Amino acid sequence: MSIEVDLNGKMLLRLDVVSSHVIPPMMGWAGEVKAGQFIRVIDPRGRQCADFWAFNAEDIDEHLSAMHSRVWVNKLCPVPGESFHSNHRRPILQVIADSCGVHDLLTAPCDEHRYRLYGLKHHHRSCAGNLREVMEPYFGTTRFYVPQPFNIFGNCPVGRDGSVTNGPAPSKPGDHVVMKAWIDLVVAISACPQEFNPISGWYPTEVLVEVLEPSAEQPG
Ligand SMILES: [Zn+2]
Question: For residue 175, is it within any domain?
């Protein structure tokens, strides 16, 4: 299977799907994306956030960094054509296509502490917990620092008064983001299990992921 991505209104890029994965509601996934490969994150039902992390496959201490990316692109979040930068201040992942246009690069992932503050007495899955779970095969059980995620489809508007709020993800069924890896990466994604605020529409659903490569034959 292949898809075509509109690069700039003038050129189409055809990509072959190398592998595809369904991340069940509230769960996580991690996989390798090699330099030159692409990753597509899809919201199949709409209104579902996907917390996204990318780590240097050779060095877990280097990762996609929200704060380094924001200062590099001089905006809240990179747009198609711009790259996420790592905490070592180099581009590691370029945004190629984005059918939604609303994402968050400001707020923390949900974690065990967030759910404890709701007063829950039982364990609740979280994006930070999902990250640690799916990273185990790559980096072991070391309790590493959880970087701030790229919260795909996260709707956290910044008001003129400096307010930062959150609302339902505006993604429609099939909305997607395509990114290209500049270096070998381990990518982790959490289908956000947050069901106590509107960020995922009060009802967590699944997320689809594809790893892709440029097709041998490109559109003329
Ligand atoms: Zn979450």
Answer: yes
Q: Which residue has the tokens 């007063």?
A: 119
- Global pTM? 0.95
| CA 151 to ligand 1 center in whole angstroms | 9
- 26 C-alpha to center of ligand 1: Å? 8
Q: Taking Cα atoms as reference points, which of 104, 120, 103 lies closest to residue 112?
A: 120
Per residue in 142-184, pLDDT (tens digit) is 767 899 999 999 999 999 999 999 899 999 999 999 999 999 9
Asked, for residue 219, whether it belongs to a domain, the answer is: no
Ligand 1 centroid to Cα of residue 75, in Å, is 23
Judged by phi (left if over 0) then psi (alpha if -120 to 50, else beta), residue 201 lies in left
Cα 109 to middle of ligand 1, angstroms: 5
Could you tell me the residue range of the domain that residue 185 belongs to?
A: 2-6+17-214
Under 8 Å CB-to-CB from 61, ≥6 apart: which residues?
Answer: 87
pLDDT for residue 27: 98
Q: Domain count of the chain?
A: 1
